[in-house]
Automatic annotation (TrEMBL):
WD repeats lie at residues 138-175. This is Regulatory-associated protein of mTOR isoform x2. It comes from the Eukaryota. Pfam families: WD40. One of its GO terms (cellular component) is cytoplasm. One of its GO terms (biological process) is positive regulation of cell growth. GO terms for molecular function: protein-macromolecule adaptor activity. Gene3D superfamilies: YVTN repeat-like/Quinoprotein amine dehydrogenase. Keywords: WD repeat. It comes from Triatoma infestans (Assassin bug).
Amino acid sequence: DADSCVTCISLDPARGGAMMCIGCGDGTVRLFDRRLKPPDTRVATFREHSSWIVSAQLGIGANSIISGSTTGDVRLFDTRAKTSTLAFQTSHGQGLRAMDAHPAADLFACGSVNQISINYWSGTQLNIIKSVYHEWFYSSKFGPVGCLSFHPHKVLLAAGSADSTLSIYSLDNKR
């Protein structure tokens, strides 16, 4: 089906990539089972977002999908119920530019122009990392977030910015 552009793809590593989640430009999130015959591979289409999908990722066991759109709308879907079980707006107020979910921990991160929020899959916010920069006082800074990626085994988050800054964040205060 080519009725909208594909904006992101996620494979389920626990099943050898058999389950595939696709986010689209029309706001749909589509779930495919590659083990089925070609005409039957699309097993679900979620139409609850109203804008471009920034990220759509399968949860552990492929029974859940977390997705976020450019408007900052984040949704958690139960693939068996075919509907969202949780929906909330990120607190950024500037839309969503990047998003990633940790493959093993119950965390996801959302990036906007001037901040990154780290949240539990329940929607509870764990932390906010804000860009702070003044010419008269140097502090950590980053430009608009372009990409986010969690380490596959550790709770480390890498953030790439439009100003060529790469930052790595940890929950461990010793770093």
